[in-house]
Amino acid sequence: MLGYIPMNQEREHRQKVINYYNTAQPYYEWFWYGKSLGLHYGLWTEGVSNRQEAIIKENEVLADLARVERGDLVLDAGCGVGGSGIWLARERGARVVGFNIVQKQLTIGKELAKKKKTFRIFGVC
């Protein structure tokens, strides 16, 4: 099966992901976030001139494709620090629940969501 990880290797892979994001987190904060809080590259379409705009464009396009509307409940699996979820709540009025396996990102995301009063992030899954 494509993408299958045997149970005896799952814990090792999970720990590698956690270690990577725990190590990289300060660099994302210093060089990457900006106002979008996104940890992805975004969607570079015509008229997009920087990474922050590209991330916002990606959020817009994905929300349109998923037909996210005010009051919809959205699961953000692997939510990072909650950037896209905060955007969906603020811009589309969605109710968003985020999950992540990286406790450090969850802690940051919970603080950001609390400040924005828009997004609920639950514990490590």
Summarize this entry quickly.
The chain is an alpha/beta fold and 125 residues long. It has four helices and three strands, in the order ααβαβαβ. The chain has a three-stranded parallel sheet, covered by helices on one side.
* CATH-defined superfamily: Vaccinia Virus protein VP39
* Sheet/helix structural class: alpha/beta
Reading off the top of the CATH hierarchy, the class is best stated as Alpha Beta
Helix content: 40-55%
- From the spread of the alpha carbons, the general shape counts as globular
> Which fold name fills CATH's third level, the topology?
Rossmann fold
Average pLDDT confidence is 85
Task: Report the C-alpha radius of gyration, rounded.
Answer: 15 Å
What does the model show?
- With 125 residues, this protein is α/β, with parallel strands linked by helices.
- The chain has a single domain (8-39, 69-124), classed as Rossmann fold.
- It is 52% helix and 13% strand.
- It contains four helices and three strands, in the order H-H-E-H-E-H-E.
- It has helices spanning 7-31, 51-66, 83-92, 103-116, and strands at 73-77, 95-100, 120-124.
- Strands 1-2-3 form a three-stranded parallel sheet, covered by helices on one side.
- The model has no long low-confidence stretch (mean pLDDT 85).
